[in-house]
């Protein structure tokens, strides 16, 4: 039985803030205590084995069985010294959350004795019963074999009593069934392509790492209210709820003081995160009431992504301990800001250079411009795939809605860089360059660092913005696995850089010197990709028109956005970059489409249930009260007076009847449409839910929200928005 609204509100009155005690007042004393970092392995391994492990981590050299055995023994010893009793392969299936299957270290020997066992084979590979994870048809259920394979580049860690080993998840046939494997491949593709381009500038560069710093937004609501709202509990968002008189207009929540109970929650999850080596550093309120953000220091992208996945789990568990529930949905409440997960992205070399940070002299600046312009060009050439990488049912509500980046992909570069690009475009002459031409250009390029310093103009409305030393992809949804966006971004940038190297080499071959070839190629890219650059207000209607004029696409919903995965050229690019095969792309497309309509179907069913079983009965009860009142008035007053005295009541009685009839009619229509959808294939079903059924849900919501304003407060069954957003 779900809780009634007033019971829930009463429960909240007794809540107190809880504070967990950290083991020390200095975070550095316990940071990473539950992580088996590579440096810690040194204590447990001989030098020879340790070096082989480093070869594997740093250079991707295959690990042999005896090394794996030693590493496993080291892990077991370390984990047991910290009280671990179980181990698990921790992986990221395409459901979007993380999965684990715990096995005990303890193994009976059969003669009454027992021992703790964890061997190389158990570290390297496990076979979870994988038949119920989505595979998009890659893995037939009858051969329900999927394997998890150790990812030695991400360190093992302990949660509770379990040693968790980060792994990739693949099918019997070797196809990726997770986010991690293609992410690692995509990061490798960028590494290869970017290193080749770096060779033009610095021969010492042998590796380029992708760095990722995510900013996670979320809502917190009290657990009792959550339980009294089946829509939020089942779908992650409020399907109903009239807008409260006050929400975020006064902007008094943003950077305001954080409520005590929330501080207690934040301190505890930060403690958990720090023990797991997740470098979270900032916490603050967000714009909407009860909305908050947490962000770490950036890390290598694969690790950063593992950390984000882990943190989402920690947030969820810690929230419950504090009698909160966390909402990671992109748009839990209509009319106020949604939640995103900005992905700050850059590339850094083994020589310690951030390739997206303007340098100190013309040479390093030319290198910066090379990576900068190629990134912009990659976005231009592949805006649709990038859009698809962030397409989910939840994000459809956010992109283009209040205070979220639009579904139109564009890049914000800032005033200085824009004029630099314009300058390069105009001043690189066709034909052979004279030495003076080159000196002029270099002087110009050399000016960049000084001017960038005062580049304070940071457009917040752009989905893909340059922010001084990194790009910030802001359209990623708060519930997403960052890998989806990072796989696509890495692949398109790798592809672009590979092409760039080829084109520059071709120019050199036909007689240009190196700098000239690079400059001319950059000029060509600047010219071609102009349409993607936009510095104005991304939230405005003008931009929608302007973008259409420029030929940029604006795919407002997931079923449409995902279609690009069927594009032959896109498939080819992912195959050539060795990130995803055609089969894997197709499987992912199907999984995403299925997720879309499944989630809309759940919403439609919950919507019907609440309208029929909560709203209509409460409304009818109120109407009955009004009817009693009207007939009572008629029994005690003369007719004329009774009529006048019951004017408002009669109006309400009629209005209520009209609305509940309308709701019933839409429910009948929606049921029919759902039956129709049931007969369609997945793709058509998703479209049907998007274009036919979702609008009907919106109509029901409109009517229910109007009833909320008419029905007596005491009788309204669902916690109201003002209660959900302001009680804590
Ligand atoms: P904000 O965008 O909120 O103003 P900052 O610009 O300071 O904040 O940084 C936001 C995020 O960008 C942080 O998580 C930070 O770790 C990350 N970041 C900074 N430099 C890099 C980089 N080179 N690569 C990836 N992420 C970075
Ligand atoms: Mg930011």
First-residue to last-residue Cα separation: 23 Å
Query: How would you name the oligomeric state of the polypeptide chains in this document?
Result: single chain
Structural class by sheet pairing and helices: alpha+beta
Q: Classify the beta-strand content into a percent band.
A: 5-15%
Number of helices: 27
CATH architecture term of the largest domain: 2-Layer Sandwich
Report the CATH superfamily of the largest domain.
Glutamine synthetase/guanido kinase, catalytic domain
CATH fold field value of the largest domain: Creatine Kinase, Chain A, domain 2
> Overall 3D geometry?
globular
- Biggest sheet details: 9 strands, mixed
Backbone CA Rg = 29 Å
Small molecules bound in the structure, each named once: adenosine-5'-diphosphate, magnesium ion
Q: What's the level 1 CATH class of the largest domain? A: Alpha Beta
Relative helix content: 40-55%
Number of strands: 17
Number of domains: 3
Average pLDDT score? 92
The residue ranges in which pLDDT falls below 50 over 5 or more consecutive positions are: none
